[in-house]
Records
---
Amino acid sequence: MPKLEATPNNPLHTLTADQLEKLGQEFDALHDEIYAELGDADARYIRGMITFQRRLIAASRGVLLFSRFRPAWWAGTAGLSIAKILENMEIGHNVMHGQWDWMNDPNIHSSTWDWDTASPAAAWKHSHNFVHHTYTYVIGKDKDVGYEIFRVDPRQKWRPGYLLQPIGNVVLMLTFEWGVALHDLDFDAIKSGSKSKKQVAQELKAIGVKARRQIAKDYLAYPGVSAAATAAVTALNGGDPTQAARDSFKATLVADAVANVVRNIWSNAIIFCGHFPDQTFMFTEEEVANESRGGWYVRQLLGAANIDGSPLFHIMSGNLSFQVEHHLFPDMPSSRYKEIAPRVKEICERYGLPYNTGPFRKQWGTVQRTILRLAFPGGGPRPKPGPYVAPPEERAERERLVEALPAFP
Amino acid sequence: MVETGATPNVSFVRRQVSRIGRVMTSPLLPDDYFALIRPRWSTREVTGTVVRVNKERGNASTVVIKPNFPLEPHLPGQYLRLGMEINGIRHWRAYTITSDPDHPEGFISITSKHTEGGRMSPVLNQFVRSGQQVFLGEIEGEFTLPDPLPGQLLMVSAGSGITPILAMLRELDRRDRLDDVVHVHSSRSADDMIFGDMLRELADRRPGYRLVEIHTADHARFTPADLDHHCPDWRDRATFLSGPRELIDAVEEHYDAAGLSDQLHTERFQPVIGNGGGDGSGGTVRFRVSECDAECEAGVSILVGGENAGAKLQFGCRMGICHTCVGRLQDGAVRDIRTGAITEASGQMIRVCIHAPEGHVEVDL
């Protein structure tokens, strides 16, 4: 592999070792401060979220029993899509990160959780929690750099196969859960032989079992129940049960498929916006050799990007719209990211570091641009934002708070 | 994984409903949806409801619990883990079961002494009210009356160590076998003795039960040498010992010196194990999730080996009680360091703190 050039002006190199150490201490202190506060209110939040999600999915499945009727189909499909998104993002992703492990509740714990998607939990925890969150955006180490199929950094060597990238991108959007499941197998590790044959076989089997369960549930069991219920009702009313059953089976099957695809497109969009907008940096292995704790934090700041949005948008994105905060503190309950965001910005400002964020349109647009452009040879680094400077209203608010809260009221 | 309650015994029908229902609820269980209606309907783990809290002497409380699923029958002297949520965090402690076996409604009780600065005992002693939900672990413990019963018994206890001894004495009383039992118990004062009234009443009623009370507030602390005075024939008696660690160490030493360690029964959690020594071949471990390889010499647990190799692994008690450290054994064979039993991989969960590899093993940790 040819030696990779570091991105010019990477802020990772503007800080002295001393500054990096101080920065590391500040972020550690912020983490510990929040962790010391965790308690009943946080536990109520995640339990409330889980209860709401389960009620929503149960209700949506119930409504879809009548999927033959247009309004029921639309309501059920919408509910099911939202429930699947919540389950995968605000609940599943975050629980499997260990964000709620401090509760010591065996039913809401990274070691026991499995999610409603094709990827089995153990393999995902390896490829995501361990590989991606440790080697974040180190080209060659983090398998999430283009997921081993896309060219997302001009320093990745171009191959003719990348010409298909724009099509592959759309296919991946639609089938994201299956892409993630296969990605977790880590084809590089299989090729290089660092994974035993037995492990590969076991992981394939795990994917097979998971896939069978997911398919049986969404494409056989629920359509079957809908068909049976509709046939029974139609027969009682003296209609043709066979036709009713067939229509109903099909309508529910399509509803489930649509919900899965909606979830796939949405999670793909949020996850790509977290790492591939123009603002983010990628790193070479040399740059991160002998990295300090502070250096690790800076790399997380630079490699991730937030998405601006409303509280509802944040929940629907599993708070991955706070990707920067999530990468700094992957094990912190997601419900706390919003609260620490101003403090992270303030630290960025003091150390002259960027704080990557932008509206969804812009973030998603630059991601798609990069994927299209880098399908072709060449391409150069995109413009990077400068150090974060708080807008006047944020600065005024900060000063107002200092004034408003004297030490001894 | 994380410490969890016992798995309830559910009926065949219920198991089949769950198995079939899972097709519709995967990756969850039907139980998770039943629990939306009534949390008690979940069969994921045994829980219980506090029925009553009785204040005891000596700053202790007896908490009576109604389990939501019938528990396995217990033997007097055994304990279970009790879990409780305090400020959003679930805590676990092991407590001796102080209630008699075969309660007509299946209730059990535990007795906890208030410890300053403790996590659970202050809650159990001050804040727990009837209706509180708790989590219950498996019935455990080898500290029970032997079968057949020895003819002459000596009980040595101190402080809250009275709980398993009380359970055994009540059992002997019920079986009408309280023929020749000497009981030496230390407490701060007569007033401070947990279950003092009950035991004094027992001593009055049963001539075969002699209670020797030592009150440390105004008398010297008990030492094993005092046994010659309190119970001159202690060498001839099967001895049951329960109390703080210093007491257990002292009495064990005394019995070892007299060559009588076979006669001494005691409940003490093993000291930290897994640092080497003992049988077995040792081996290598592949930690699949944290991508780490470790070597373990004979008697070195997978946990210790992994930590030495730099893996970040979860643990709790480090002696096989709490199950915090469990991981899935995917390949190879492991040896239980405590018993020497060897288990082959079949995708089961193992406690890595008490298992050493036999050859090469792979775990999902």
Note: Chain B touches chain A at residues 1-5, 23-28, 32-33, 36, 44-45, 85, 87-91, 286, 288-291, 314, 326, 328, 330-331, 362, 364 (CB under 8 Å).
---
Amino acid sequence: MATPQIPTPVEIGRANQHDVKIRWNDGREIIYPARRLRLACPCAACVEEMTGRRMLVESAVPAEVHPLSIHAVGRYAIQILWSDGHQTGIYTWERLYEMAGQLPNSKIER
Amino acid sequence: MPTEDQVLQALRQVIDPDLHRDIVTLGFVKDVAICEGAVKITLELTTPACPVKDRLKEEAEQAIRSIPGVDQVNVKMDAQVRPTLAQMGSMMIPGVRNVVPIGSGKGGVGKSTVSANIAVALAQTGARVGLMDADVYGPSIPTIMGITDAPKPGEKGIIPIEAYGVKVISMGFFLKPDQAVVWRGPMLTKMIDQFLGGVEWGEIDYLIVDLPPGTGDIHLSLCQRIPLSGAAIVSTPQDVALQVAQKAVIMFNQLKTPILGLIENMSYFVCPHCGQRENIFDTGGARRAAGRMNLPFLGEIPLATRLRETSDSGRPIVVSDPKSPAAVAFQQIARALAAQVSIRNAEETAAEPVKITF
């Protein structure tokens, strides 16, 4: 029952003006497009708690949405303050790593 | 005359059994002074509660004595508790090096008695210790620590009350006996913020947090607010308690808070009249569970009337009856816990924490 070894981020920074870049400790470097990350918000206002149904309406999110700041949540996640005022989502390492697989630009750099 | 290089070379033979590296690489060796055949060094350990302190001192002395030309050896022992690396990024409690919550899952397993005695036992080794009673519903730390004063406001926050060398804060300080806390989640989160950032903790090596039972708002808030060094989990030996303790383990795993180990309370009872041992709640269950879950086992505390009496009268057993079996158990557990914190912190130094530059 010791913590299962999933990759953890080494560095979380900017890919450009808006997008987030995460370097993982397995060598992967992933760029998370800002809007895509906002739409993936896992908070209870964006995703229905029991069914997992997405409640967030895409058209309600500004096209130019981007993070204003990012801070660590304990040892396991980050919280993002968005330009549209939203900030309740907690993005766990698992969720972010899982997302990486669905992004077109993931590449392995060692 | 021996050289400093020779001394360091000899000390490289001394391996810390917990950290599995030699004491020179670990940076323990300070102030090497050589005068003719006399060698003086200071060993700065990562905790004053080090369980292998005497052994390291002896081995260091022997290693230096084996250098040709040495006729006098003086090894001074010192300790500097290192912070959880991730903690250095947190400005919420800048002087606190390690935060160690003590949880249980199930209620009534003696968590508060265990927390209080571990805190006092750590302070007795010379560590600077804080004790935060995060059990708002049933704050029993003031009773166990014998505190009846109310804390006073300081310049930057509440001044914790000192008892038996431990700085204590508790919701119980702010309640009358006929008052109960009936709060929803957001209030509990605010209380955790207050107890962390709104208290003048000062310089603290170990902040022990007595958690309420369960896996709720307070646990989640604490794990989110600050990077914790790791949690210890108390259980009684019987299956029904261990099943719930396992839920606490799962919660801390989910929140990526390391588990420093399991503690078994009410492990057995020795009849004071006939000396026969009775395993009232079974025994060894927590040790077996730790083995199954691949977690460290920190120790077991017997059931004893003295232990209950000392808790109720506000004089923790490690102070009032330090030679009793229960007190000795607490002292050993405190040292084992401090060793686990050092081990985790050493591992993390190797790993480096996440850097956020957005």
Note: The mean pLDDT of chain B is 91.
---
Amino acid sequence: MRNKRIGIDIGGTGIKAAQVEEGQVLNKLEWPVLASGTKEEVVDQVNQLIRSIGVEGVSGIGIGVPGLVNPRTGIVYDVMNIPAWKKLDLKTILENEFHIPVALNNDANCFALGVYQQRKIKERTSLLGVTIGTGLGTGIILDGKLVSGLHGGAGEFGLIEYRNHDQEYYASGRFFENIYNENGKRMYELALAGDPAALKMYAELGMHIGNAFKTMLYALDINYFIIGGSVAAAWPMFREATLQQLSSFAYSQAVENLVIEISDTADAGIIGASALIMQ
Amino acid sequence: MTLFLEKDYQTLSAKAAGHLLQLTRDKKQPLICVASGDSPAGLYKEIIAQKTAAETNSWNFVGLDEWQGMNAGDEGSCQWHLHQQLFKPLNVDAEKICFFDGKASSMEMECQRVDQFIANQGGIDIAIIGLGSNGHIGMNEPQRDPTLTAHIAELDPITIKTAQKYFKQETKITGGLTLGIASILAAKHIFLIVSGAHKSGIIKQLMETEPTPALPVTWLKNHPSVYLYLDEAAASEWKKNTHA
């Protein structure tokens, strides 16, 4: 049976949405700016996107949000850049509007589910989707199932205390600004041009990411990491430093067997969100 | 489609120009497909204002469409307008411009010539287009074959009537020459520029209709890189719908 669903990926700055059918993304509409202002205005923006990509023949709507959301209740608690969404029952609002099931989860969990779906890998595979962008997010797929935890907070490794801040203070795109007061995009361009100081910063970022990976390995012992997010494109610049840091991991076999892949598709978040309906 | 909703026409034009200049920076000799009409006029003005010294010197241009029986020498023709708005201010060499000649002896040969120019340039990099209130893009009217490249277009009465605004006196329009839907969809990026309250109805339809020959602009929905620029007035009907 054909099964068409809508996937929505709410990001830090904008929203992407599309129909997803058999892994194919259709009618994608991207709105790079978030409506500012009231709770209702942003909900309206989501409504408009859903209408515009079409609900006819759609069996459900899945939404990934960058922030705290309870996947069991569909209540959004705190979202990056949408300060008005505090304790918003988005699931009920949208179900009343469109009369089809709606499911929510955080963006990193949607990313993990998306890359899992895209790869059409064996059932019961375990993988870790790691988004390195303005934050450090993780989605856990264990034995083929997304693990969100009781309240949606499972795998929030970025928030674990580390040095004098948390992991994502050091192991994300914000590293450059936090530690060196430099613009990350500019450092990327300099590193591309071979600038030694920028490359050294990337090596340091790679070391912190290696430490974050160690924490993930100690917690889950999963041997398949897929990296996404805006910093993933710079992987060649910090790869060596990350692997170097991992070489001191206590269970050396876990590191020997570790596969790290870079996700190059922008649609993983949409595909993963659409797959929430089946989870 | 990536949607840029701006407060007014000027802001929208400036944003589109910024994106266009950014996208063309990676390309040695980009081919830009240009439409005449009111919608892209602001974008052309902004390109002229925002470009740095020699930035546009390497650009090649292909005209989207032209009225039959007219060419650059006819005041009001598509090419005439583009000369005023873009080619003259940018000082573009004649050999960098390919435009339908509506006075050519063979319309069929003229279509082949334009197709060949596009192929020789390695395809269109950016197609700048506007939107007719019946959903046409270029002179591709509703219910026509979307698989065509450059071809002779039969025009709907509404298009002929609306076109009078481009001429000083009443002008008889019999038909047109246009790049087809297939030519437009083969562009790497498509800039669709729509502004004003009089376009709000067609924008609502575009946003809420699956691809269909009844509304040629909807073919753009499955192109991987469409930039849709709207001002608040053009988006007003579509936005209103939310609380209907």
Note: Chain B has a mean pLDDT of 94.
